Every structure is written in structure tokens, then in C-alpha cells.
Amino acid sequence: MPAEPRIIPLCEPYLGGNEGRYLQDCIESGWVSSVGAFVDRFESMMAEAVGTAHAVATVNGTASLHIALLVAGVKPGDAVLVSNLTFVASANAIRHAGAFPIFIDADERTWQMDPGLVGDFLDTRIDSTSGNPVDRETGRRVGAILPVHILGYPCEMARLRSLAEPHEIPVIEDATESLGSSIDGSPCGSLGEFGCFSFNGNKLLTTGGGGMIVTKDPENARLAKHLTTQAKLPGVEFIHDQVGYNYRLTNLQAAVGCAQLENLPHHLERKQQIFKTYRQAFDGLGESIEVGPEVGPTSAPCHWLSALRLPETRDDSESPRSRALLQHLEAHGIQSRPLWQPMHLSPAYRETNSSAYPVSETLYREVLCLPSSVGLTKADQETVIERCLEFLDTRP
Ligand SMILES: *Cc1c(COP(=O)(O)O)cnc(C)c1O
Asked: CB of 193 closer than 6 A to ligand 1?
């Protein structure tokens, strides 16, 4: 049989620690399901890593967001301000809670939720006479703000918090892409009322699939745990005081999570190195090409995915350069990916909003995520860079 052509993947899991050993522990002890010592250990390790006192393991990042929204008090019919340029799960979790997303465009420099637009929205559309922050246009109460730190680059959390505070609107961080990122030394995920993480296969750490809600508030943590475990009251009888969810992480997955978390510093170091190497290779090619968004002086991103921005000279061209580069890399066995279709263009959500989103649309056309696996070898990264440079030489 001919050998499979080798591809350089965008972002594959790196299982280089105690994963096998801990899984073997689960199998030998019989603790494979939704309770067990690894679940507790994974939760306390995450709480420590993020600097929140509490962490609640969940089945995936989307479930974490759903439960955080519910515990934050988001009710059916509410509105939630969320990044427009994000993976669809951020918006889906809002709909799962029965609320409606209000999409906020990205900032040109940071690529993240633009706090200026959040401020404009709150200034011009909120009526607080009822004691609640109500959107005048729709009559919906604004129940939360959900910034997403995309690609591992922090949102401007201090500004977002100071905008939310006077209205008493809780801030929930979609930190699924930003484990290990921090602002002023404070980790992403600890900067709002709740932080939500994902351990999907492509994330900085993986449990196969999984998630975590972190919070500083013990009552919020208790409620989150309660809702993720079918809202069962303690004791041998099956008595449930509300409609809960089966959103538990298994002990098997948590075992992998513990081993992964032990290697967090290594994963972060590798991501940082990969980013630096791309920067060095592409910086100076011309002011129009940049690697990653601009990083604030006090931000320490985890660089989950390194991304190249290839500005368009005309924004009405049929096929942006970023997509031509994607094709070129694909032809040479290198996987790269565009950003997500902005939510306001998504068939699932395009009815929701009438605003304009020029920055999201531009970034969507111009940005391409490059191979960023923790295990990416030096030689493979050089190949990626060579192929990119070859393309840019012929398509300046
Ligand atoms: C991965 C991701 C999620 C969802 O995580 P799952 O574990 O796949 O459910 C949510 N938001 C963003 C921005 C993500 O990248």
C-alpha cells in the first residue's frame, strides 16, 4: 500500500505526558464514568491555573457557556452582547439559554469585541427606568456581555467591565481559546463573573472533548455543578429541584485533562515559539502583512493559533489572497484555515441583526490561521514558511 501523503495539520493534540498512565488508573480502579478522583483533581488544578477559587467540569465548552449564562441569570427573551467574529458555539449557547445575541463588531487592531461599540450600544439603547438594563429597540433585558478572546488574544477586559458595571450586567468570558493568556498577570477566565473553557481536540489542551466553568463565587460554582448534574439533590433518593442537564465530564476525560494540565507550561512555550518564528519570517515583508492581532503592552496571549493577515487592495475582489494562499498550502499538504464566517452572515443568525460589521467582514476575508500544533517540528514550520513566501513572491 502506498504511504499516506503526510500533511501538516492546523492544530493537532499533543499527548506527551501522563495521559496513558492516568487512563490506566481509571481502568484498573473501575472509575471511568462521571464521578471520580480525576474529575475533582482536574477541577482543582484548573481553579489553581486560572486563579479562581472554583471550577466545574463539563462535557464541552458549549455546555460551559450555556450553564454560565443560566447561572448568571440570563432568562429566555433576554439579549446578550457577544463578539460577532467568533466560533458559532458562543452564539448557540445564548440561544440554548433562550436569549438572543446582539453581535458586536471586532476592533481593527485587536480583532476582538470592540469596547467602543459596546459603550455606544449601552449609551444609546439602554433604558434603565424599570431598574433593568432594557434595550429600547427590542424591549429585551440585556442579561450578560460575552466577550470571546479569539485565537488566544485577550479582549480589553478592563474597559468592558467598567462599561458593564454601572448597569450591573455580568460579564462571562468565552475563554475557550485563551487558556494560559493573561492581562496584567491576571489569567483570562478570571476577569469576569465566569470564565468558560473547552478541551476539544484542537484546543490548547484537550480531553478529547470537555469543558470547564471557572468562577470566584462559591454559590455560583455550587449552582453550576447542580445544573450540570441533573439538578439532583444530595442523598440516595432521586429528587431534582429543577430541570437540569447531563453536562458532566467523565473521569476518563478528566484523567487526560490532569495529564495535559501538568504540561501547560510546555504547551504555552511551544505556542509562543511558533508565533515568534512566524513573526520573524513575515515581519518586514511589507507593512501590509502582519502576524496575529496587535497585542497590548500588558497582555500575554497564549498564541493558540498563529494567524497571517493579508490585506486586500480592493475589498470587492472575488477571491481574497488569504483563500488563494489556503489553496496553495493545501496543494502542498499544509492545512490552514480562515476565521469563522462572521455571525451576522451566518445562515443560522443573519436574521438577528441589522447593524453593519465592516471590521469582521474584512478580517474574515484577510486572515488565515497557520499550522500551530504544539508538536509542530522546526522543519515542518520552515516548510510552511517557505510555501507561504513562495506564494507571496508570486502574488505580492
Ligand atoms: C471551541 C470553542 C467553543 C466550544 O467548545 P466545544 O468544547 O467545542 O463545545 C466555544 N467558543 C469558541 C470561541 C470556541 O473556539
From this structure: no
Q: Is the CB of 177 inside a 6 Å radius of any atom of ligand 1? A: yes
Tens digits of residue pLDDT in 133-189: 999 999 999 999 999 999 999 999 999 999 999 999 999 999 999 999 999 999 999
Mutate to test the pocket of ligand 1, among 84, 174, 372 (most ligand atoms within 8 A of CB): 174
For ligand 1, is residue 253 a contact (CB within 6 Å)?
Answer: no
Q: Provide the pairing of β-strand 134-135 with 194-198.
A: unpaired
Report the C-alpha gap between 324 and 306 in whole angstroms.
18
For residue 217, what is its C-alpha cell? Answer: 463565587
- pLDDT, one tens digit per residue, over 267-291 is 999 999 999 999 999 987 876 789 9
Q: Which of 138, 127, 133, 143 is nearest to 95 (CA)?
A: 143
In angstroms, the first-to-last Cα distance of the chain is 41
Ligand 1 centre distance from Cα of residue 393 (Å):
36
- Among 384, 392, 272, smallest CA distance to 10 is for 384
Q: Which residues pair with 81 in a beta bridge?
A: 102, 145
Say if residues 124 and 130 touch (Cβ distance below 8 Å).
no
Handedness of CA 213, 219, 223, 226 (dihedral sign): positive
Q: Are 324 and 396 in contact (CB under 8 A)?
A: no
Nearest CA to ligand 1 atom 2: 176
